[in-house]
Amino acid sequence: MKNRFFPASGPFRLFSLLGALALATVACSPTEPPQDETPATTASSATSDDGADLILTGGTIITVDADGSTASALAIRHGRILALGDEAEIASLAGPATQRIELNGRTVIPGFIEGHGHFLGLGESRLILDLQAVTEFDELIDQVASAVAEAQPGEWILGRGWHQERWIDDGRARFDGVPRHDDLSAISPDNPVLLTHASGHASFANAQALALAGIDRDTADPEGGTIVRDDNGEATGFLRQAAQLKARRAHADSEADRTDEEIEARFLRQVELAGEEALRHGITSFHDQGASFDEIERLRRLSNADQLPIRLHMAVRGESNEAMAERLADFRQVGDGNDFLTVRAIKRQIDGALGTHGAWMLAPYSDKPDTAGLPQTPIDSLRQTAEIALAQGFQLNTHAIGDRGAREALDLYEALFTEHEASDLRWRIEHAQNLNPDEIPRFAELGVIASMQGIHATSDGPWVPQRIGEERARRGAYVWRALIDAEAVICNGTDVPVEPISAIASYHASVTRRMPNGEAFFPEQAMTRMEALKSYTINCAYAVFDEHRLGSLEVGKLADLVVLDRNPLEVDDDALADTQVDMTLVGGEIRFQR
Question: For position 348, what pLDDT does the model report?
């Protein structure tokens, strides 16, 4: 059986973007500034006979360098920044073949770096049902019904993005906030349906999918998961954390007969769609959390053929400790060849999500006092991973949303750093959404990156106090200000496809903490405009050891930049939310233009 997929819009253009990129990719200089030197930031560092390939002039260029410099013009040569300065200085670097972009008062910033997302997951999310905007259960039913009408019997219907806290109360009985599958199953009797929660940490299945997964009233809860049941002990279809794996395996079994050509075609389509979406939002680099060895090998082939649309920093995920100990070294690469693919991180998951009561908390949930979360990785297994990362020179990125999860991860990091006398490893806590105040200073003390997502605070804010109580939320939920004041490094992002990939929306959330209802979620924890910009540029470059190539606009760095229609440091909050990406350049090449 095949699964039903739904292109977001337009014809199925399998190789359109990738083929164009193969013809248009700009070669990058293999040299880069020494790591102990700061590149110059004025035109005086370049000679007139160098000749710029591209000049941008007549705007405000926010460099995000250490001095907070600005310029009005910028020159690019061989995919790197040649010079910055005033318009007269930069004009002197033009040659007969130089192209020019007149900014007309617009603003240039370094390319946004998506600090935590799922690149192939983004592409896949555009091939299945998009449930992010669903505000009532009947809308979800209607979307599935439309998909069933176009599907063959036996085809899987897949979707993602629903969240029970966004649904209005329609009178249906709910179990852990979600109705039974009866209405869903009634409109899809011949098609298994599996709909992934917005967080990715739960799924909702119809009767067909449950049957194929072998889940019924007698099926025991797996370790780290819950088969949610109604008052009579019947499975409702809501599968929390590890409980969804049986249904996912059933879907995977249905695709076992796919040919290599079909697998590759869908993979290329995922890359194409993800690249389009990223570039449209000004994303020039992407920290992927993470991918299998097979997926990384496929991406490596695209990178070697100059066919990646943006720069990818991949974390290995889903491989056993034994497999990583044996094979990890074969996959390590740091911007090899064309600076588009780096593989030197491992992703593990210590807990689940707050929205599904899976985040591992120090105290029980306020709205579900029978649980303090669902730990996902035994500490001994995580320690084995950490030892492998140390031995292979990889970063370790640990998903920890609950305060207990963050404490356990930091305790492990500290023990290993001390034992091995290690420093400047820049290991990361992914999300760090809920922290006990005792853990806040430890990030800076240990040199651990707080990889957080600004948009999560405003998206989750309306129901966070319901989950953990007002006081715990106030002192520990999305505490950016406290972390910054403690001199921790925050790398921003969206966790796409959990949230839309819009860097502007996440930036706006970071500085306003304004929820959809117009109220601010503990506004005392907001970032300043420049702090938020750094969290999306130079901080994320630092978070992957790339601050000497990316993250700011300085001479010698890769020419990844975004042209905005307004200055994000100056406009008011309402205007900031409406900021548009007019142009995205990667390596000096225009890859998106509005």
Answer: 98
Q: Is the pLDDT of residue 38 over 80?
A: no
| Cα 134 from Cα 251, distance rounded (Å) | 24
Contact indicator for 567, 44 with CB cutoff of 8 Å? no
CATH 3.40.50.1980 at 118-254, yes or no: no
Residue 15: which pLDDT band, with cuts at 50, 70 and 90? very low
- Mean per-residue pLDDT over the chain, rounded: 91
Answer yes or no: are the C-beta atoms of 421 and 370 closer than 8 Å.
no
Question: Please, which pLDDT band fits residue 50 given cuts at 50, 70 and 90?
Answer: low
SS3 per residue for 417-431: HHHHCCCCCCCEEEE
Omega of the bond prior to 121 within 30 degrees of 0, cis? no
Q: Report the run of H or E that residue 151 belongs to, with start and end.
A: none
Looking at per-residue pLDDT, the higher value among 48 and 570 belongs to: 570
DSSP state, 27? P
For residue 104, give every residue at least 6 positions away whose Cβ sits within 8 Å of its Cβ, in sequence order, or none: 58, 59
Per-domain boundaries in the chain:
32-111+551-594, 118-254
Which of the listed CATH numbers 3.20.20.450, 3.40.50.720, 1.10.3720.10, 2.30.40.10 matches domain 32-111+551-594? 2.30.40.10
Gap between the Cα atoms of 358 and 351, Å rounded: 6
Specify the residue for token string 């007549």: 58
Tokens of 570: 């100056």
Q: Give residue 312's Cα distance to chain centre.
A: 11
